[in-house]
Amino acid sequence: MTTESTNIKTFVESFDPARSGLPGAGLGWLKALREDGIERFEALGLPTPKLEAWKYTRLKPLEDTRYQPVTDEDGMAALDTVPSLLPDPGGRPRLVFVNGWMRPNFWIDGDLPDGVHLEGLRDVLETRPDWIRERLGTLAGEETSSLVQLNTAMMDTGFVLRVEDGVRVETPIEVIFVGGLTAHPVAYSPRNLIVLGKGAEATVVKYHVGLGAGAYLANSVSDIEVGPGALLRHYKVQAEAKEATHIDTIRARVARDATYESFSLSIGGRLSRNEVSVRLEGEGAHCALNGAYLMRGSEHCDNTTVIDHLVPHTTCREVFKGVLDDESRAVFVGRIVVHKDAQKTDGYQLCKTLLLSTGAEIDAKPELEIYADDVKCSHGAATGQLDETALFYLRSRGVPEALARNLLVQSFIGEALEEISDEVVRQAITDQVVHWLPAACYLAEEWRAE
After folding, report:
1. pLDDT (tens digit, 9 = 90+) per residue, 43-87?
2. Residue pair 51/145 in contact by the 8 Å Cβ criterion
3. Which of 54, 302, 309, 390 is the most exposed place for a label (fewest CB within 10 A)?
4. What is the structure's pLDDT at 4?
């Protein structure tokens, strides 16, 4: 028996003892959904590079590590340390989960307006099971991803945000998942749901952060519905611990005249994969799907995206930029699909990567599939090193070499950060980028102030 099949068996065998403690254990429909999920996971197995969608990424941590479901004891891990990881709330609404368990002591309601409902998954399954049933099961039968099926079986945490028709949430909502510092490798499976009604507007910032040097698996799935004329700004910062594996699947449906704006920053974890699928289902729908990745050491980051233009007069813009150092590796597979009836589609895609060492590697595969004849679409990918001419220019004006390099990296990534429309969030994510850079970057503000 291979290591891979052994670990598939480990996940399957952990399901039975865990199921009684999972959210909604008393709901018959959810029990059936979970059982179907674990059966499909066992049949599909872990993804391997033999699959085209996983050609450049091997889930070696999942093959080598025997993860266990989280317990309440795991959720109490490092509670004294958690506050030091959290950004200043500034009055913003906030939910915090520690190793999959929501911790009310870190809850900040932030005076959410009427018509906005922010709750934990467990609570919604108890109070509105019929409402959430319609949404949890919508794509379950069609899903071919074994890791999404594993999440469906084991979903043990997560949040639900519902914004009613016409309601605008002015303040960004923060949801923070903290992992690590457990006695053994654990796996937790957030299932998140965001539903915006007609003409609603909201900004959600999701953080995944880690503690300690131990291994853990965060296998997250988010289902998103953006109603007619609504606007959702959906941002994520992935700063997992050194030995963490981070799998994040986002499935968004965008209605007529609605906008889904997304940005993902990846700056940590042993292995991370951000898989985003967006369906533009109504005329006038728009998707802005952007991101940045900064890797060092032997870290591996995979961004795989699909945008489906299903009807006429839809638009998308996709910009990803990355910086790779040491022996790190990144993958970008971006696919824009223009279906037969989607005339007047306007799509743009770009991926650029900066290699800071000869050992770093990027596999980029931008794709266009066009089945309509009246469209405007373009895509491209580029890889390079720091501009030696620009570096010489800065050095000749008295800027130390380390600082000059950092300024050039900041400028390169800054082009992607400009895609973030919310100024508060853009600054917060920019700060994360600055802290990733070597220590010399902290001289940047002092140098600019002279």
Report:
1. 999 999 999 999 999 999 998 899 998 887 766 766 666 766 676
2. no
3. 390
4. 62
The CA distance from 162 to 197, in Å, is 8
- Alpha-carbon gap, residue 177 to 363, rounded angstroms: 29
What pLDDT does 111 receive? 78
Strand 186-188 with 191-196, pairing: unpaired
Burial of 218 by CB count in 10 Å (0-12 exposed, 13-18 middle, 19+ buried)?
Answer: buried
Which residues, at least 6 apart from 254, have a Cβ–Cβ distance to it below 8 Å?
226, 260, 278, 279, 280, 281, 282, 285, 286, 287
Give the pLDDT of residue 92. Answer: 84
- pLDDT for residue 140: 45
**What tokens does 116 get?**
């906005």
**Integer Cα distance of 72 and 232 in angstroms:** 33
pLDDT of residue 103: 84
Answer whether residue 78 is part of any domain: yes
Residue burial 90-121, b: 16+ Cβ < 10 Å; e: rest: eebbbbbbbbbbbbeebebebebeeebebbbb
CA distances to 28, 139, 153, 253 from 224, in Å: 24, 12, 19, 6
Q: Are residues 266 and 412 in the same domain?
A: no
Tokens 């794709």 map to which residue?
Answer: 367
Q: Which two tokens stand for residue 68?
A: 């266990």
Task: Tell me the residue range of the domain where 409 lies.
Answer: 386-450
> Which pair of structure tokens corresponds to residue 100?
């999959």
Do 266 and 392 have their domain in common?
no
334 in a domain, yes or no? no
User: Distance between CA atoms of 310 and 110, rounded to whole angstroms?
Assistant: 38
The pLDDT value given to residue 71: 80
∠37-7-249 over CA atoms, to 5°?
45
The torsion region of residue 253 among left (phi > 0), alpha (psi -120 to 50) and beta comes to beta
pLDDT at 78: 62
C-alpha 382/C-alpha 44 separation (Å) is 34
Residue ranges in the chain whose pLDDT is less than 70: 1-6, 74-75, 77-81, 83-85, 87, 89, 137-143, 439-450
pLDDT of residue 441: 46
- pTM comes to 0.93
Q: Which pair of structure tokens corresponds to residue 276? A: 């985003």
Classified as helix, coil or strand, 270 is coil
Query: Does residue 393 belong to any structural domain of this protein?
Result: yes
Amino acid present at 346: D
**What angle is formed at CA 168 by the lines to CA 175 and CA 159, rounded to 5 degrees?**
25
